[in-house]
Amino acid sequence: MALALILGPAHAGKIAELYARYLAELAAGRSAALVVPSSDVKRQTQRELLERAPAIIGADAVDFDELFERILRLTGDRRPVLRGGARQILLRRVLPEAPESIGTRFQRLGSALLDPAAVRAAGDQVLADQYERWWRALDEEQVIDRGRMRIAVIEALRTDVAAWPAGEALFAQGFDDLSPAQEELLRLIAQRAEVVLSLSYEAGRVPFHVLTPVVGRLAELAGSGGISELPVGAFERHPDLVALERRFGELEPDARCAPSATGGVMLLEAEGERGEAELVVAEVVAALRAGVPGHRIAVIAPRGAADRLRLVRQVREAGLEVDAAEQRLLVKTPFGRALLALLALAWAETPTDAERLAWLRSPWSGAPAHLVERIERPMRRSQETLDEGVQRLGEPIMRALAPPAGARGAATAVDEVVAAVRGMLQRAHGLRAADDSNALRDDVAVATVVLSELGRLATVEPPPTRDEVREQLVHLAFRGRRARKDAIRILDPRAARTIDVDLAIVIGLEEQALGATSVSDPLVELPEQSEVARHLAYMAITRPRERLILLRRIADDEGRPLAPTAIWEDLVAAAGSPPVALRRGFSDVVFPVEDAPTVRERARSIAALAGTDADEALRLAGAAGVTGAIRRALASRRQGTRLGDPRLLDELQQKDPFGVTELDRFGKCSNVWFVERRLNPKRIDEPVDDRLRLGTIAHSVLNRFYREVPGILNTTALGPEQADRAVVEAHRIVDEEMVKVRPIVAGDRLKIDLMRWGLRRDIGRLVRRAALADAPLVPSEFEVSFGMRTAQAGRKDGVDVGPARLSGKIDRIDTDPMMTARAIVVDYKTSTIPIGSDIRDKGELQVPLYLLALREILGREPVGGLFISIRKGATRGIVDQAEADVLPPGLVGTDIVDHETFEAVLESARQQAAVRVERMRAGDVRHDPSDAAFCTTHCDYSGICRVRP
């Protein structure tokens, strides 16, 4: 018996030779096993074998783990192999202090055939102790894990002649990641039976350096007569791809294999993730249009799983079917989130509102969606708690919140979860599903994965606790639903080693590792990772037969340049240094119309053209089938904004008075005024704006402070000597006002505390600054209304501006204690405040109109109007220089104007108010923001507004 090696470069026919020998062994009536790298390759192998023979009897295709377990059973060892969550639970019980990665390390030690004694001999006493404890726990539970299984199988093969059936041949596909256990397994079986191993290897070539030690050891066992070296060229391929394969990594490439420059290899560059995805989509769509079947296209992405999932999402958004062999976390699925929420309801003493709502929102709760919305709406607006909503709606919601029978109080936690899963399916689909919908199939698929994992957990003794079961469900991952057969494949370089396609797009070539593992272990000898990366690059570029696209990012998403790697430079040199065929940058928002890969991208390209050539855009839209979308886009630019509803216009004609803040809003943007004051959209999916709540509370605190504190301190005006006591009283009032704000949803308590701390800081600073300033005028009137039915007698008439009267409410009026008629209007703002130049030149009418009301309605002589920023502590506005003896100290010079300018500002405000009233009554609504920055920083309706210059 001996080992036979089938060696050769990519596409030399190694696998075909291996399959031929395997089928010949079966045809001769002898038993044989075929080892493949993974379960995915197993299915592919079975298809290829059936293509070579009409029927196969006795075929046995397994991966290495299945082969190890098969041999374990042949030795008479019937211990269950511990996997998944069951193994993790036992690990946590045995080694609670160890890191999460300890299980993976134990597996790695088993693959390296290192037992606890070998680890101790290597000098790592802590790891050896943990490893021994783990082995003792396995013995006590009478189970075995895969790492120990490998060691046990190798020991059995060394001592037990019956561990492998005499004369049964073994055929194996090998790669660069053969572990010591796998290599030793092949060597020991070769002493009993024929072993045939295929490897991608060509002596002396740089891309195969990583395999040289392994091939050297196996070659000694095989001998010169057992090695078959196949030449390149078993398959018909594009000349450029043949040349690239022969030249890659060579210092002196063969001149006879110079690239033909006929388009077999293309170089692309992109800036950022978006540019890379757009280039991938464009090339895939171009290949599909050229007639390449989807299953003959592969995108090889050497990045981590998260990056590949982002690429998969972007390709799917383009309308392309993708097979990405995705691992999905249970908690990332709707079924999984609902299950964990249900377990919280069943197991937690006091489940949170978020958990109860997550369960109620799900279709598995059985709660009517409209009733759940009736509970959530007042909660989002902080008007009602969840318990109050449940009590209000009664039995339907209470019934939905009751866990299914058995989800609480069953024999074990595993039994409770089984009951919960079955109850969820019953609530959503009934005992007998009437249809075979996608929703039912998805639910059953996920439930099957969960029940299978629970079956493994049920083997653990003593039974897992609720916390242990919940933790395993949180980390449970499974493969998503398999894509159609014609789907484009997106896979990492290791998974791509066995594929055969017409087009391969290799991305991630800006990375040094290129998919090589970054894990290191001082006790396990690993190959040089740069050599692994080069071999993976070789395997990736040799997958296609017709065309290869090499794509690298030249900048990350932050715009930082990425230098080319050594592998990229070697690939470019081997390809004959062709120019970069296409570069996609951050500024390339749309494709040229003729190059747009999808209908969506073509519509975006035509829409961009419509800005300069509407007729050509409409012609192209007709050919592309997107005429309706482009016509709507063009029509929106010509759409009139003037109000035309006669009922609304009649209502505006009859309106009197107009609010000062309403006029001020109209001046900032008449479209915003229309949306806010006339359309009046209700906020359903957003809580009450914290800025509005903060402003309301701050107003109440300041009003109480100036009403109460002068009496408490026995003074009419706060001075520097009362500053400290004033701050203490301000903090007291803040605390008393914040008690009135009750928490509604999860997180409210923290928000309320943060708001309270911020108000104590801001208002304390404000009153201290006011006391130290010792201003001549003192606060005397608060929340002063005019022009309203609720105003005091003599103040019900508004300010006359000609076409209408104005109403409003002044936050504070500071008057002269010397009994003169002079006064200052004060208005509180939460943060940003207008300055003097805004009031004079930009149509800020609130303060000037309040000053007119002060003079004409309240009978006082205006000295000035000030805005006070509660959060920033600033004071700005406009004041009359002629009244300098009563002005507060510390004013900004540009806010102080001479008497003539001051009066002119008041009169100008009256005239501007009249113009705005006339525009309102005429329905003259425009897209006219007074400040472009207003649209992006202060407008909540920018998403429904097309602003024109």
- What amount of the residues lies in strands? 5-15%
* End-to-end separation: 86 Å
Helicity, as a percent range: 40-55%
Major sheet summary line: 8 strands, mixed
User: What's the shape?
Assistant: elongated
Average pLDDT metric:
86
Quickly count the helices. Answer: 36
Structural class: alpha/beta
Cα-atom Rg, whole angstroms? 39 Å
Low-pLDDT parts are none
Number of strands: 25
Give a written overview of the molecule:
This protein has 949 residues and is an alpha/beta fold. Helices cover 48% and strands 13% of the residues. It is built from 36 helices and 25 strands. Strands 18, 19, 20, 21, 22, 23, 24 and 25 form an eight-stranded mixed sheet that branches. Strands 11-14-10-15-16-9-17 form a seven-stranded parallel sheet. Helix 5 packs parallel to helix 8 (146-159), helix 19 (413-429) runs antiparallel to helix 20 (438-457) and helix 24 runs parallel beside helix 26. The longest helix has 26 residues, at 748-773.
Name a few traits of the molecule.
36 helices; single chain; 13% strand; 48% helix; alpha/beta; 949 residues; 8-stranded mixed beta sheet
Can I get a quick summary?
By secondary structure, the chain is of the alpha/beta class.
Task: Outline the secondary-structure elements.
Elements: E1 3-8, H1 14-27, E2 32-35, H2 39-52, E3 61-62, H3 64-74, E4 81-82, H4 84-94, H5 102-111, H6 116-121, H7 125-141, E5 144-145, H8 146-159, E6 169-173, H9 180-190, E7 195-200, H10 212-222, E8 227-229, H11 239-247, E9 265-271, H12 272-289, E10 297-300, H13 305-317, E11 322-323, E12 327-329, H14 334-347, H15 353-361, H16 369-380, H17 386-393, H18 395-401, H19 413-429, H20 438-457, H21 466-475, E13 477-479, E14 488-491, E15 501-506, H22 529-541, E16 544-555, H23 566-574, E17 580-584, H24 599-610, H25 614-624, H26 627-638, H27 646-654, E18 658-659, H28 660-668, H29 670-679, H30 690-712, H31 723-739, H32 748-773, E19 778-786, E20 799-800, E21 805-815, E22 822-829, H33 836-841, H34 846-856, E23 861-869, E24 875-880, E25 896-897, H35 899-922, H36 932-937
